[in-house]
Specification:
The two termini are 38 Å apart. Helices cover 40% and strands 15% of the residues. Helix 12 packs parallel to helix 14 and helix 14 packs antiparallel against helix 15. It has 15 helices and 15 strands. It is globular. The strands form four sheets. Strands 2-1-3-4-5-6-7 form a seven-stranded mixed beta sheet, with helices on both faces. It has a three-stranded parallel beta sheet with strand order 8-11-12. It has 435 residues and is an alpha/beta fold. Bound molecules: iron/sulfur cluster. Iron/sulfur cluster binds next to helix 6. InterPro entries: BchE-like, CHP04014_B12-bd/rSAM, Elp3/MiaA/NifB-like_rSAM, Methylthiotransferase_CS, Methyltransferase_Class_B, rSAM, rSAM_horseshoe, rSAM_sf.
């Protein structure tokens, strides 16, 4: 069968993996980042953002392909709430959860109530079949596109999956909901074979995805630093240490040997999801870490000669001015090498989405008009904090970055864009919560 996998904007690892599974099942598979699909091809849209459900180009692609008699299936992280996907995009079916095994049967047999792990509309009724068991963690080589070397996601040609699941329970995050809280690690040989294939296809740098990199090889809550170090060493032997990064790590999942290995076998950066400088907000977010632990982790990384980047979330429902000031203080005190700021985004199916549903609009920072310092810019409270923290962070980097007019305009545009997207996602969630 001729199958086109559409992965909007970037070749995600998930789309490449599904491509490899379908290729090995004997199908002719093409991977594309643009919303185009040849007539007669089965379209599989691999969608990873709520915004994809609202994107006019993607909506039109699905509609046109079905009008021409084509079949469209949708999978990926958006499948967490399949009814939203069914009613917003109207595909033939949704692959729910881990889809490696489901997708092969779906392509060959079509949707039916006897196929686990799918959802489809029967008239106006949404049918969600029994959950499919978690997919086997070992898998065929992904379908790696010829132009993978041209892709750069935070500097990496691709983020490869070394394990699934996360022991954390952050309220805003889909990882533990999609993949579970039990960590399942791939065999090292299989990962290294894949790294070699990526390199042969032209990948310049590879990064490790999967929530917290250093959980690779762990059992329950017991970390296995030896497994993670062997993974980094193996990847560096193929790619060269300057072409490996292991960025996302929980502040409570580091040891001295892990940090030494990151310095020796990677580009030498650690990326912490810090989120807030307020312990109250961190507790609400279910981060499982305190401000003190963050400070200690950053200090420890520096002692090991590593660069540290951190992400922060502003505008979490209930975040007070005092909480936000605590975040600004922490940003100043840590003086991180790089900082990423985002406004709290309620991803459907997460506890944060449930909280947003329960939060009155006039108490939700994504909708509350900002009445402080930036009131002339007509921002919401989330947008104002996002914008303000971006500029604030620049003042406290190890090398000061001047906020020029261009930088000011870019930060303002980014904060507003995030605000618009979050309000659109919130409206969507609220619409379905009322059904
Ligand atoms: S630690 Fe990271 S991957 Fe795990 S739940 Fe929290 S944000 Fe998600």
């Amino acid at each position: 069968m001729d199958i086109t996998i559409f992965s909007p904007g970037i070749y995600t690892y998930g789309a490449m993996l599904i491509g490899g599974v379908l290729r090995d099942a004997g199908h002719e598979v093409t991977l594309t980042r643009t919303p185009e699909v040849p007539e007669g091809s089965l379209l599989l849209a691999s969608l990873f953002s709520t915004q994809h459900l609202l994107d006019p180009k993607i909506r039109s692609l699905v509609r046109r392909h079905r009008e021409r008699g084509g079949t469209v299936y949708v999978g990926g992280p958006v499948s967490a709430v399949p009814e939203i996907v069914l009613r917003e995009l109207a595909p033939d079916a949704v692959v729910v959860g881990e889809g490696e095994e489901t997708v092969v049967r779906l392509a060959e047999e079509g949707a039916s109530e006897t196929l686990p792990g799918i959802a489809y509309l029967d008239g106006d009724q949404a049918v969600v079949t029994a959950p499919a068991p978690p997919a086997p963690i070992d898998r065929p080589l992904p379908l790696i596109p010829e132009d993978i070397g041209s892709q750069s996601i935070r500097g990496a040609s691709a983020y490869i999956e070394t394990h699934r699941g996360c022991i954390g329970g952050c309220t805003f995050c889909q990882v533990p909901r999609f993949f579970g809280r039990e960590v399942r690690s791939r065999p090292l040989e299989s990962i290294i074979e894949e790294v070699k294939a990526f390199r042969a296809a032209g990948a310049k740098r590879l990064s490790i995805s999967g929530g917290t990199g250093s959980l690779y090889g762990s059992h329950g809550c017991e970390m296995n630093p030896g497994a993670f170090i062997a993974l980094l060493r193996g990847m560096a032997e193929v790619m060269g240490p300057k072409n490996v990064s292991a960025p996302d790590i929980r502040v409570d999942c580091i040891t001295d040997e892990i940090l030494d290995a990151i310095r020796q076998y990677t580009i030498g950066w650690v990326f912490f999801g810090i989120e807030s400088g307020s312990n109250r907000v961190l507790r609400q977010m279910g981060k499982g870490a305190t401000v003190r632990e963050v400070e200690e982790a950053v200090e420890r990384c520096r002692e090991h000669g590593l660069h540290v980047a951190g992400s922060f979330i502003v505008g979490y429902p209930g975040e007070t001015e005092r909480d936000y000031e605590a975040t600004k203080d922490l940003v100043a005190a840590l003086s991180l090498d790089d900082v990423f700021i985002s406004s709290a985004e309620p991803i459907p199916g997460t506890p944060l989405a449930d909280l947003v549903i329960r939060t009155p609009r006039d108490k939700n920072p994504a909708f509350m008009p900002h009445t402080g310092e930036y009131r002339a810019l007509h921002l919401t409270e989330s947008e104002a904090r996002c914008f303000d923290l971006m500029m604030h962070a620049d003042m406290y980097r190890p090398q000061i970055r001047l906020v020029t007019d261009e930088v000011y305009a870019a930060y303002l545009a980014e904060a507003k864009k995030q605000g618009e997207d979050i309000r659109a996602a919130t409206e969507l969630i609220l619409r379905y919560a009322q059904r």
